[in-house]
Design goal:
The protein has 186 residues and is an all-alpha fold. Helices cover 78% and strands 0% of the residues. Helix 3 runs antiparallel to helix 4. The longest helix is centred in the first third of the chain and has 28 residues.
């Protein structure tokens, strides 16, 4: 019985990792965020306690909010991230999703706490570092944001999203949707 349980758990971990890769592929490289959300809805419906699927749905909702400039999706992302964290408090995707939603909702200072935790839980999560850089930048700490964006690019130097964020910060730019919500404090 123990061997079956162990094998099953190993299988779940592998499926979870593959699910993350599949969802990120749909979101970032295929520009099919709605399809990712539908896929995750099916997984969550059949397994309501799947914290990774819930965390990834929060992540996809954040992306949808940014694509459509509809900030009610950010609030929904925050709710899904918190649900995932209630099931697994150390889920770096849920923590990153929560931080991203907080930034988009104009709460960059709160986001820094959550994103620091995400980066501690998984120091190889480039998006935890990237979003932490934005939270720091928007909270008036450009030196810390420079270090965080450097860490993100150290993980994935060819990521165009990270590179564009770095360029914007170096030029003193803020994405339009964040200007009203998170005016940088200098």
């Amino acid at each position: 019985m123990l061997n079956r349980l162990w094998t099953f758990r190993v299988g779940v971990v592998m499926v979870t990792r593959d699910l993350r890769d599949e969802v990120f592929d749909l979101i970032y490289w295929k520009n099919r965020t709605e399809e990712a959300i539908l896929k995750l809805n099916g997984i969550i419906k059949s397994s309501p306690e799947n914290s990774r699927a819930i965390a990834l749905k929060a992540y996809a909702l954040n992306k949808l909010a940014n694509l459509q400039q509809e900030w009610n999706y950010s609030q929904l992302a925050l709710e899904f991230a918190e649900r995932a964290l209630s099931l697994n408090p150390d889920d770096d995707i849920a923590l990153t999703s929560k931080g991203w939603a907080l930034i988009d909702l104009g709460r960059a200072n709160e986001a820094m706490v959550v994103l620091n935790q995400a980066a501690r839980v998984n120091p190889n999560n480039e998006y935890a570092w990237y979003n932490l850089a934005w939270a720091q930048y928007l909270s008036g700490n450009p030196l810390a944001s420079t270090e965080s964006i450097r860490r993100a690019l150290g993980i994935n130097p060819n990521n165009p999203i990270l590179r564009r964020g770095k360029e914007m910060m170096e030029k003193g730019q803020v994405p339009e949707h964040l200007k009203k919500r998170n005016a940088p404090q200098r």
